[in-house]
Amino acid sequence: MPSPQKQKGSSWEREVARHLSEVYKESFIRAPGSGAYVGGKNKTRTQILHEGQIRSFKGDIVPGQSFPKFNAECKSYADFPFHLVLTGHCKVLDGWLDQMMDVSEPDDLNILFMKFNRKGSFVCVQTNKTWITDQFLYYTSTKHKDWLIIEFDHFFKLNTELLKTYCSGTNDTKSNIVQLNTLVNTNN
Q1: For labelling alongside 101, which of 24, 95, 113, 127 has CA 20 to 30 A away?
Q2: Number of structural domains, the chain?
Q3: Domain of residue 115, residue span
């Protein structure tokens, strides 16, 4: 029987997958075994797997068909040291980013979904993409550069279409800029 912490983590992964499925009207599912099959010392397995298989074993969520560049980790814990995020030295967050980035490809959209008891749910995304928000924490990882931490519902209220665009694998920045301007004007 799985530990209570493992059950809690699996439940959060299913909740995130269900939310993404509802928002995008595509099938997102919790990854079997959650991740490590192609991460860390198992990275060599990617040499014998096709793209669909790699996507199924990368991260905690198997994305919908139109999200080929989606790489996600999900973490659910009783507490989180937000004060260490503000100091720029949060080993817990750095460890989670290491885990996620270990299986990341150069063009992936990397997203960390976090849930903490009596604190809420949050999304952590890289700043190499433009995100719409006026409420966030900024974190600089010595190894993985700059990240934004945004409350979960606030993130999806403002960034649903941007997330899909960034995960689609298209590098059409002109369309992204037009879409971003449209979204900004709509939300103001």
Answers
A1: 24
A2: 1
A3: 4-187
